[in-house]
Write a structure and sequence with these properties.
Layout: H1 3-6, E1 16-19, H2 23-34, E2 39-43, E3 58-59, H3 70-94, E4 105-109, H4 112-127, E5 133-135, H5 137-143, E6 153-157, E7 161-162, H6 165-178, E8 183-185, E9 189-195, E10 198-204, E11 209-211, E12 214-217, E13 238-248, E14 259-261, E15 266-269, E16 274-278, H7 292-305, E17 313-324, E18 331-334, E19 340-344, H8 354-366, H9 384-387
Parallel strand pairs: 1-2, 1-12, 2-8, 4-14, 12-19
Antiparallel strand pairs: 3-7, 4-6, 5-6, 9-10, 10-11, 13-16, 13-17, 14-15, 15-16, 18-19
The structure holds flavin-adenine dinucleotide.
Length: 390
Protein backbone atom coordinates (compact mmCIF):
# COMPACT_ATOMS: atom_id res chain seq x y z
CA UNK A 1 0.00 0.00 0.00
CA UNK A 2 1.15 3.56 -0.53
CA UNK A 3 0.92 4.25 3.15
CA UNK A 4 0.00 7.87 2.68
CA UNK A 5 -3.02 6.76 0.64
CA UNK A 6 -4.67 5.01 3.56
CA UNK A 7 -3.62 7.01 6.55
CA UNK A 8 -2.00 3.90 8.05
CA UNK A 9 1.47 5.52 8.22
CA UNK A 10 2.63 3.43 11.13
CA UNK A 11 1.70 0.09 9.54
CA UNK A 12 4.16 -1.97 7.50
CA UNK A 13 3.14 -2.60 3.89
CA UNK A 14 0.98 -5.72 3.96
CA UNK A 15 1.98 -8.92 2.17
CA UNK A 16 -1.62 -10.10 1.86
CA UNK A 17 -4.82 -8.18 1.30
CA UNK A 18 -8.16 -9.79 2.08
CA UNK A 19 -11.06 -8.31 0.12
CA UNK A 20 -14.22 -8.51 2.23
CA UNK A 21 -14.70 -8.34 5.99
CA UNK A 22 -17.52 -10.83 6.39
CA UNK A 23 -16.93 -13.88 8.57
CA UNK A 24 -14.80 -15.50 5.87
CA UNK A 25 -12.52 -12.53 5.19
CA UNK A 26 -12.03 -11.76 8.88
CA UNK A 27 -11.29 -15.40 9.70
CA UNK A 28 -8.79 -15.61 6.81
CA UNK A 29 -7.07 -12.44 8.04
CA UNK A 30 -6.93 -13.89 11.55
CA UNK A 31 -5.32 -17.16 10.48
CA UNK A 32 -2.93 -15.41 8.06
CA UNK A 33 -1.85 -13.13 10.87
CA UNK A 34 -1.45 -16.09 13.25
CA UNK A 35 0.68 -17.78 10.59
CA UNK A 36 2.98 -14.73 10.50
CA UNK A 37 1.79 -13.24 7.19
CA UNK A 38 1.44 -9.42 7.19
CA UNK A 39 -2.18 -8.82 6.24
CA UNK A 40 -4.74 -6.05 5.77
CA UNK A 41 -8.50 -6.30 5.23
CA UNK A 42 -10.57 -4.03 2.98
CA UNK A 43 -14.36 -3.81 2.97
CA UNK A 44 -16.57 -1.54 0.90
CA UNK A 45 -18.96 -1.18 3.87
CA UNK A 46 -18.28 -2.32 7.46
CA UNK A 47 -17.12 -5.62 8.97
CA UNK A 48 -19.87 -8.24 8.99
CA UNK A 49 -22.38 -5.88 7.44
CA UNK A 50 -23.65 -8.19 4.68
CA UNK A 51 -24.73 -11.84 4.75
CA UNK A 52 -22.79 -12.64 7.91
CA UNK A 53 -25.05 -10.27 9.87
CA UNK A 54 -28.14 -12.22 8.78
CA UNK A 55 -26.99 -15.80 9.42
CA UNK A 56 -28.63 -17.85 12.15
CA UNK A 57 -25.29 -19.24 13.28
CA UNK A 58 -26.00 -22.96 13.19
CA UNK A 59 -22.83 -25.06 13.18
CA UNK A 60 -24.70 -28.09 11.96
CA UNK A 61 -22.71 -30.46 9.74
CA UNK A 62 -25.00 -33.36 10.63
CA UNK A 63 -28.39 -31.69 11.12
CA UNK A 64 -28.09 -29.93 7.76
CA UNK A 65 -26.62 -32.92 5.88
CA UNK A 66 -28.24 -33.53 2.51
CA UNK A 67 -27.98 -36.31 -0.07
CA UNK A 68 -24.96 -36.18 -2.41
CA UNK A 69 -22.94 -33.91 -0.11
CA UNK A 70 -20.14 -36.21 1.12
CA UNK A 71 -17.37 -33.72 0.24
CA UNK A 72 -19.22 -30.90 1.97
CA UNK A 73 -19.81 -33.09 5.02
CA UNK A 74 -16.05 -33.78 5.28
CA UNK A 75 -15.28 -30.05 5.24
CA UNK A 76 -18.13 -29.17 7.60
CA UNK A 77 -17.07 -31.83 10.12
CA UNK A 78 -13.46 -30.75 9.96
CA UNK A 79 -14.46 -27.12 10.55
CA UNK A 80 -16.83 -28.01 13.41
CA UNK A 81 -13.89 -29.81 15.04
CA UNK A 82 -11.71 -26.71 14.61
CA UNK A 83 -14.28 -24.35 16.15
CA UNK A 84 -13.26 -24.65 19.85
CA UNK A 85 -9.62 -23.74 19.17
CA UNK A 86 -10.61 -21.02 16.67
CA UNK A 87 -12.95 -19.40 19.20
CA UNK A 88 -10.43 -19.77 22.04
CA UNK A 89 -7.74 -18.02 19.96
CA UNK A 90 -10.09 -15.07 19.38
CA UNK A 91 -11.35 -14.93 22.97
CA UNK A 92 -7.75 -14.74 24.20
CA UNK A 93 -7.35 -11.46 22.27
CA UNK A 94 -10.80 -9.85 22.43
CA UNK A 95 -11.46 -9.87 26.15
CA UNK A 96 -14.94 -11.33 25.75
CA UNK A 97 -16.85 -14.54 25.23
CA UNK A 98 -17.99 -15.41 21.74
CA UNK A 99 -20.86 -17.61 22.91
CA UNK A 100 -20.05 -20.78 21.01
CA UNK A 101 -22.13 -23.74 22.30
CA UNK A 102 -22.42 -27.39 21.30
CA UNK A 103 -26.09 -27.63 22.20
CA UNK A 104 -27.16 -30.27 19.66
CA UNK A 105 -30.37 -30.16 17.66
CA UNK A 106 -33.74 -31.86 17.38
CA UNK A 107 -35.35 -32.21 13.97
CA UNK A 108 -39.04 -32.85 13.95
CA UNK A 109 -41.61 -34.42 11.61
CA UNK A 110 -44.98 -32.75 12.07
CA UNK A 111 -47.03 -35.33 10.13
CA UNK A 112 -46.70 -38.80 8.59
CA UNK A 113 -45.33 -37.56 5.24
CA UNK A 114 -42.66 -35.58 7.01
CA UNK A 115 -41.87 -38.61 9.18
CA UNK A 116 -41.00 -40.62 6.05
CA UNK A 117 -38.68 -37.88 4.86
CA UNK A 118 -37.09 -37.54 8.31
CA UNK A 119 -36.50 -41.31 8.46
CA UNK A 120 -34.58 -41.09 5.17
CA UNK A 121 -32.52 -38.22 6.53
CA UNK A 122 -31.84 -40.19 9.74
CA UNK A 123 -30.71 -43.23 7.73
CA UNK A 124 -28.44 -41.03 5.60
CA UNK A 125 -26.77 -39.62 8.70
CA UNK A 126 -26.19 -43.13 10.09
CA UNK A 127 -24.88 -44.35 6.72
CA UNK A 128 -22.40 -41.47 6.71
CA UNK A 129 -21.19 -42.59 10.15
CA UNK A 130 -22.81 -39.72 12.06
CA UNK A 131 -24.64 -39.73 15.40
CA UNK A 132 -28.40 -39.47 14.99
CA UNK A 133 -31.00 -40.88 17.37
CA UNK A 134 -34.62 -41.57 16.41
CA UNK A 135 -37.03 -40.28 19.06
CA UNK A 136 -40.70 -40.99 19.58
CA UNK A 137 -42.99 -37.97 20.18
CA UNK A 138 -43.04 -38.39 23.97
CA UNK A 139 -39.25 -38.55 24.26
CA UNK A 140 -38.83 -35.55 21.97
CA UNK A 141 -41.20 -33.54 24.16
CA UNK A 142 -39.41 -34.66 27.31
CA UNK A 143 -36.24 -33.08 25.92
CA UNK A 144 -37.96 -30.01 24.45
CA UNK A 145 -41.32 -29.62 26.24
CA UNK A 146 -42.40 -26.68 24.06
CA UNK A 147 -42.62 -28.82 20.90
CA UNK A 148 -46.02 -29.19 19.20
CA UNK A 149 -48.03 -31.98 20.91
CA UNK A 150 -49.06 -33.65 17.64
CA UNK A 151 -45.58 -34.28 16.25
CA UNK A 152 -45.04 -37.57 14.41
CA UNK A 153 -41.39 -38.25 15.28
CA UNK A 154 -38.02 -36.62 15.70
CA UNK A 155 -34.30 -37.17 15.54
CA UNK A 156 -31.68 -35.91 17.92
CA UNK A 157 -28.32 -34.79 16.51
CA UNK A 158 -26.13 -34.31 19.59
CA UNK A 159 -22.94 -32.91 18.03
CA UNK A 160 -24.20 -29.76 16.30
CA UNK A 161 -23.59 -26.32 17.78
CA UNK A 162 -24.39 -22.62 17.52
CA UNK A 163 -22.64 -19.26 17.62
CA UNK A 164 -23.97 -15.72 17.23
CA UNK A 165 -22.34 -14.56 13.96
CA UNK A 166 -22.60 -10.89 14.91
CA UNK A 167 -20.87 -11.47 18.26
CA UNK A 168 -18.21 -13.59 16.56
CA UNK A 169 -17.63 -10.89 13.94
CA UNK A 170 -17.22 -8.16 16.55
CA UNK A 171 -14.84 -10.36 18.52
CA UNK A 172 -12.77 -11.05 15.41
CA UNK A 173 -12.55 -7.34 14.63
CA UNK A 174 -11.48 -6.62 18.21
CA UNK A 175 -8.89 -9.40 18.12
CA UNK A 176 -7.48 -8.22 14.77
CA UNK A 177 -7.34 -4.61 15.96
CA UNK A 178 -5.61 -5.65 19.18
CA UNK A 179 -2.97 -7.30 16.98
CA UNK A 180 -2.75 -4.13 14.86
CA UNK A 181 -4.05 -5.77 11.69
CA UNK A 182 -5.43 -2.91 9.52
CA UNK A 183 -9.12 -3.11 8.59
CA UNK A 184 -10.06 -0.49 6.01
CA UNK A 185 -13.80 0.10 5.80
CA UNK A 186 -15.89 2.11 3.38
CA UNK A 187 -13.42 1.39 0.56
CA UNK A 188 -14.41 -0.88 -2.33
CA UNK A 189 -11.73 -2.74 -4.25
CA UNK A 190 -12.10 -1.82 -7.91
CA UNK A 191 -9.04 -3.22 -9.65
CA UNK A 192 -6.33 -5.84 -9.44
CA UNK A 193 -2.76 -4.80 -10.23
CA UNK A 194 -0.43 -7.37 -11.76
CA UNK A 195 3.26 -7.45 -12.42
CA UNK A 196 4.81 -10.14 -14.60
CA UNK A 197 1.52 -12.03 -14.46
CA UNK A 198 1.31 -12.26 -10.69
CA UNK A 199 -0.69 -10.21 -8.21
CA UNK A 200 0.99 -6.94 -7.22
CA UNK A 201 -1.74 -4.69 -5.77
CA UNK A 202 -5.42 -3.94 -5.38
CA UNK A 203 -6.83 -0.60 -6.47
CA UNK A 204 -9.41 1.10 -4.26
CA UNK A 205 -12.37 3.28 -5.06
CA UNK A 206 -11.01 6.82 -5.17
CA UNK A 207 -7.67 5.82 -6.65
CA UNK A 208 -5.49 4.55 -3.78
CA UNK A 209 -3.52 1.33 -4.20
CA UNK A 210 -2.50 -1.33 -1.73
CA UNK A 211 0.57 -3.32 -2.71
CA UNK A 212 0.16 -7.03 -2.10
CA UNK A 213 1.76 -10.22 -3.28
CA UNK A 214 -1.26 -12.19 -2.10
CA UNK A 215 -4.91 -11.18 -2.58
CA UNK A 216 -7.70 -13.24 -1.01
CA UNK A 217 -11.17 -12.65 -2.48
CA UNK A 218 -13.73 -13.05 0.32
CA UNK A 219 -16.44 -10.86 -1.19
CA UNK A 220 -19.35 -13.24 -0.51
CA UNK A 221 -22.24 -13.07 -2.98
CA UNK A 222 -20.55 -10.15 -4.77
CA UNK A 223 -17.65 -12.38 -5.85
CA UNK A 224 -19.52 -13.60 -8.92
CA UNK A 225 -19.96 -10.08 -10.34
CA UNK A 226 -16.60 -8.64 -9.27
CA UNK A 227 -15.68 -6.83 -12.48
CA UNK A 228 -12.18 -6.19 -11.11
CA UNK A 229 -11.34 -9.90 -11.34
CA UNK A 230 -10.08 -11.35 -14.63
CA UNK A 231 -12.93 -13.09 -16.50
CA UNK A 232 -11.34 -16.54 -16.40
CA UNK A 233 -10.98 -16.61 -12.60
CA UNK A 234 -14.19 -14.79 -11.60
CA UNK A 235 -16.06 -17.48 -9.63
CA UNK A 236 -19.52 -18.75 -10.64
CA UNK A 237 -21.09 -17.46 -7.42
CA UNK A 238 -24.75 -16.44 -7.42
CA UNK A 239 -26.86 -14.79 -4.70
CA UNK A 240 -29.48 -16.96 -2.97
CA UNK A 241 -31.69 -14.79 -0.81
CA UNK A 242 -32.61 -15.86 2.71
CA UNK A 243 -34.87 -14.13 5.21
CA UNK A 244 -34.84 -14.62 8.98
CA UNK A 245 -37.05 -13.33 11.79
CA UNK A 246 -35.78 -12.33 15.21
CA UNK A 247 -37.98 -12.81 18.29
CA UNK A 248 -37.29 -12.19 21.96
CA UNK A 249 -38.36 -14.00 25.10
CA UNK A 250 -37.29 -14.33 28.72
CA UNK A 251 -33.66 -15.54 28.86
CA UNK A 252 -34.48 -17.29 32.17
CA UNK A 253 -37.28 -19.31 30.53
CA UNK A 254 -36.16 -20.09 26.95
CA UNK A 255 -38.68 -21.90 24.74
CA UNK A 256 -36.02 -24.39 23.60
CA UNK A 257 -32.53 -25.38 24.70
CA UNK A 258 -30.91 -26.17 21.34
CA UNK A 259 -31.52 -25.99 17.58
CA UNK A 260 -35.02 -27.09 16.54
CA UNK A 261 -35.84 -27.89 12.94
CA UNK A 262 -38.81 -29.01 10.87
CA UNK A 263 -39.02 -29.61 7.14
CA UNK A 264 -39.70 -25.90 6.53
CA UNK A 265 -38.14 -23.89 9.33
CA UNK A 266 -35.44 -23.88 11.99
CA UNK A 267 -35.17 -22.12 15.34
CA UNK A 268 -31.90 -21.07 16.96
CA UNK A 269 -31.94 -19.82 20.58
CA UNK A 270 -29.52 -17.11 21.74
CA UNK A 271 -28.35 -16.86 25.38
CA UNK A 272 -29.99 -13.40 25.78
CA UNK A 273 -33.48 -14.78 25.09
CA UNK A 274 -33.61 -14.05 21.36
CA UNK A 275 -34.86 -16.75 19.03
CA UNK A 276 -33.87 -16.73 15.35
CA UNK A 277 -36.39 -18.20 12.92
CA UNK A 278 -34.96 -19.14 9.53
CA UNK A 279 -34.91 -19.24 6.66
CA UNK A 280 -36.41 -18.69 3.23
CA UNK A 281 -34.47 -19.64 0.09
CA UNK A 282 -35.18 -17.49 -2.96
CA UNK A 283 -33.43 -17.12 -6.33
CA UNK A 284 -34.11 -13.42 -6.94
CA UNK A 285 -30.73 -12.01 -7.89
CA UNK A 286 -29.43 -9.23 -5.67
CA UNK A 287 -32.82 -8.40 -4.14
CA UNK A 288 -32.54 -7.97 -0.35
CA UNK A 289 -36.12 -6.97 0.40
CA UNK A 290 -37.77 -8.34 3.51
CA UNK A 291 -41.23 -9.41 2.40
CA UNK A 292 -44.50 -9.85 4.25
CA UNK A 293 -44.84 -13.29 2.65
CA UNK A 294 -41.39 -14.38 3.83
CA UNK A 295 -42.03 -13.25 7.41
CA UNK A 296 -45.53 -14.76 7.40
CA UNK A 297 -44.29 -18.17 6.17
CA UNK A 298 -41.51 -18.28 8.76
CA UNK A 299 -43.77 -17.32 11.67
CA UNK A 300 -46.53 -19.71 10.61
CA UNK A 301 -44.11 -22.65 10.37
CA UNK A 302 -42.37 -21.65 13.62
CA UNK A 303 -45.77 -21.72 15.34
CA UNK A 304 -46.51 -25.21 14.00
CA UNK A 305 -43.21 -26.44 15.46
CA UNK A 306 -43.12 -24.56 18.77
CA UNK A 307 -46.59 -23.10 19.43
CA UNK A 308 -45.52 -20.61 22.12
CA UNK A 309 -43.41 -18.58 19.68
CA UNK A 310 -46.50 -16.47 19.01
CA UNK A 311 -46.15 -15.08 22.56
CA UNK A 312 -42.63 -13.76 21.93
CA UNK A 313 -41.76 -10.15 21.16
CA UNK A 314 -41.20 -9.48 17.44
CA UNK A 315 -37.83 -7.71 17.04
CA UNK A 316 -37.58 -7.63 13.27
CA UNK A 317 -36.57 -9.46 10.12
CA UNK A 318 -33.53 -9.41 7.85
CA UNK A 319 -32.62 -10.64 4.39
CA UNK A 320 -29.19 -11.69 3.17
CA UNK A 321 -27.61 -13.25 0.10
CA UNK A 322 -25.99 -16.65 0.43
CA UNK A 323 -23.06 -17.03 -1.96
CA UNK A 324 -24.24 -20.10 -3.88
CA UNK A 325 -22.16 -22.19 -6.32
CA UNK A 326 -23.14 -24.67 -9.05
CA UNK A 327 -22.14 -27.71 -6.93
CA UNK A 328 -22.95 -26.24 -3.48
CA UNK A 329 -19.26 -26.50 -2.52
CA UNK A 330 -17.23 -23.43 -1.61
CA UNK A 331 -14.26 -22.10 -3.58
CA UNK A 332 -11.15 -22.14 -1.39
CA UNK A 333 -7.69 -21.92 -2.88
CA UNK A 334 -5.44 -20.53 -5.61
CA UNK A 335 -6.54 -19.40 -9.06
CA UNK A 336 -4.74 -19.34 -12.41
CA UNK A 337 -3.37 -15.89 -11.46
CA UNK A 338 -0.35 -16.42 -9.18
CA UNK A 339 -0.98 -14.84 -5.77
CA UNK A 340 -4.76 -14.60 -6.23
CA UNK A 341 -6.82 -16.84 -3.93
CA UNK A 342 -10.56 -17.32 -3.57
CA UNK A 343 -12.35 -17.87 -0.25
CA UNK A 344 -15.98 -17.62 -1.26
CA UNK A 345 -19.10 -19.51 -2.33
CA UNK A 346 -19.89 -20.81 1.16
CA UNK A 347 -23.63 -20.81 0.47
CA UNK A 348 -25.52 -22.15 3.56
CA UNK A 349 -22.39 -22.91 5.61
CA UNK A 350 -20.18 -19.83 5.78
CA UNK A 351 -20.32 -19.45 9.54
CA UNK A 352 -19.60 -23.14 10.07
CA UNK A 353 -16.81 -23.23 7.47
CA UNK A 354 -14.94 -20.11 8.64
CA UNK A 355 -12.18 -21.87 10.67
CA UNK A 356 -11.60 -24.52 8.00
CA UNK A 357 -11.46 -21.98 5.17
CA UNK A 358 -9.16 -19.65 7.07
CA UNK A 359 -6.74 -22.38 8.04
CA UNK A 360 -6.71 -23.76 4.53
CA UNK A 361 -5.96 -20.34 3.02
CA UNK A 362 -3.23 -19.62 5.58
CA UNK A 363 -1.72 -23.05 4.93
CA UNK A 364 -1.71 -22.52 1.18
CA UNK A 365 -0.22 -19.03 1.40
CA UNK A 366 2.56 -20.15 3.73
CA UNK A 367 3.17 -23.34 1.75
CA UNK A 368 2.21 -25.73 4.53
CA UNK A 369 0.53 -29.03 3.80
CA UNK A 370 -3.17 -28.42 3.29
CA UNK A 371 -6.08 -30.20 4.83
CA UNK A 372 -7.20 -33.02 2.56
CA UNK A 373 -10.97 -32.22 2.31
CA UNK A 374 -10.14 -28.83 0.80
CA UNK A 375 -9.19 -30.44 -2.52
CA UNK A 376 -12.90 -30.65 -3.43
CA UNK A 377 -13.16 -26.87 -2.99
CA UNK A 378 -10.37 -26.06 -5.48
CA UNK A 379 -11.59 -23.00 -7.45
CA UNK A 380 -9.78 -24.20 -10.54
CA UNK A 381 -12.51 -26.83 -11.05
CA UNK A 382 -14.53 -24.04 -12.72
CA UNK A 383 -11.71 -22.44 -14.70
CA UNK A 384 -11.92 -22.95 -18.48
CA UNK A 385 -8.54 -24.69 -18.78
CA UNK A 386 -9.57 -27.35 -16.23
CA UNK A 387 -13.20 -27.94 -17.12
CA UNK A 388 -12.75 -27.61 -20.86
CA UNK A 389 -15.70 -25.22 -21.09
CA UNK A 390 -15.19 -22.06 -23.13
C1 LIG B 1 -30.82 -16.38 6.07
C2 LIG B 1 -29.46 -16.98 6.16
C3 LIG B 1 -29.18 -17.87 7.19
C4 LIG B 1 -27.91 -18.46 7.27
N1 LIG B 1 -27.64 -19.31 8.30
C5 LIG B 1 -26.42 -19.89 8.38
C6 LIG B 1 -26.12 -20.75 9.47
O1 LIG B 1 -26.94 -20.98 10.35
N2 LIG B 1 -24.88 -21.32 9.51
C7 LIG B 1 -23.94 -21.09 8.55
O2 LIG B 1 -22.84 -21.67 8.63
N3 LIG B 1 -24.19 -20.25 7.52
C8 LIG B 1 -25.41 -19.65 7.41
N4 LIG B 1 -25.69 -18.83 6.37
C9 LIG B 1 -24.68 -18.64 5.32
C10 LIG B 1 -23.65 -17.59 5.75
O3 LIG B 1 -24.31 -16.45 6.23
C11 LIG B 1 -22.76 -17.21 4.56
O4 LIG B 1 -22.25 -18.35 3.93
C12 LIG B 1 -21.60 -16.35 5.07
O5 LIG B 1 -22.06 -15.27 5.85
C13 LIG B 1 -20.77 -15.84 3.91
O6 LIG B 1 -19.77 -15.02 4.49
P1 LIG B 1 -18.83 -14.15 3.57
O7 LIG B 1 -17.83 -13.51 4.48
O8 LIG B 1 -18.36 -14.97 2.43
O9 LIG B 1 -19.82 -13.06 2.92
P2 LIG B 1 -20.40 -11.67 3.51
O10 LIG B 1 -20.76 -11.78 4.92
O11 LIG B 1 -21.47 -11.25 2.55
O12 LIG B 1 -19.16 -10.70 3.41
C14 LIG B 1 -18.64 -10.27 2.17
C15 LIG B 1 -18.04 -8.89 2.38
O13 LIG B 1 -17.37 -8.51 1.19
C16 LIG B 1 -17.53 -7.10 1.04
N5 LIG B 1 -17.28 -6.77 -0.36
C17 LIG B 1 -17.94 -7.22 -1.45
N6 LIG B 1 -17.36 -6.70 -2.57
C18 LIG B 1 -16.34 -5.91 -2.17
C19 LIG B 1 -15.37 -5.09 -2.83
N7 LIG B 1 -15.35 -4.97 -4.18
N8 LIG B 1 -14.47 -4.42 -2.10
C20 LIG B 1 -14.45 -4.51 -0.75
N9 LIG B 1 -15.36 -5.25 -0.05
C21 LIG B 1 -16.27 -5.95 -0.75
C22 LIG B 1 -18.96 -6.83 1.51
O14 LIG B 1 -19.14 -5.48 1.92
C23 LIG B 1 -19.09 -7.83 2.66
O15 LIG B 1 -18.83 -7.23 3.93
C24 LIG B 1 -26.93 -18.19 6.28
C25 LIG B 1 -27.22 -17.27 5.28
C26 LIG B 1 -28.47 -16.66 5.21
C27 LIG B 1 -28.76 -15.67 4.14
Amino acid sequence: MNRTDTGQDDQPAPGAVVVGAGIIGLACAWELHRAGVPVAVVDRAGPGSETTAVAAGMLAPVGELDFGEADLLAMNLRSAGQYPEFVASIERCCGGVVGYRRCGGIHVALDRDEAGELKRSHELKLRMGQASEWLGPATAREIEPGLAPGLAGAIRVPGDGVVDPRVLTSALVEALESERVPILTGRAVESLGRSGGRVAAVGLEGGAEIEADVVVVAAGAESGRAEWLPDDVRPPVRPVKGQVVELKGDPERPLCSGILGSERVYLVPRPDGRLIVGATSEELGFDRTVTAGGVYDLLREAGRLLPDVVELEYLGARAGLRPGTPDNLPLIGPTAVPGLYLATGHYRNGILLAPFTARAIAGMVTGETTDEPVAAADPRRFEPSVSGTP
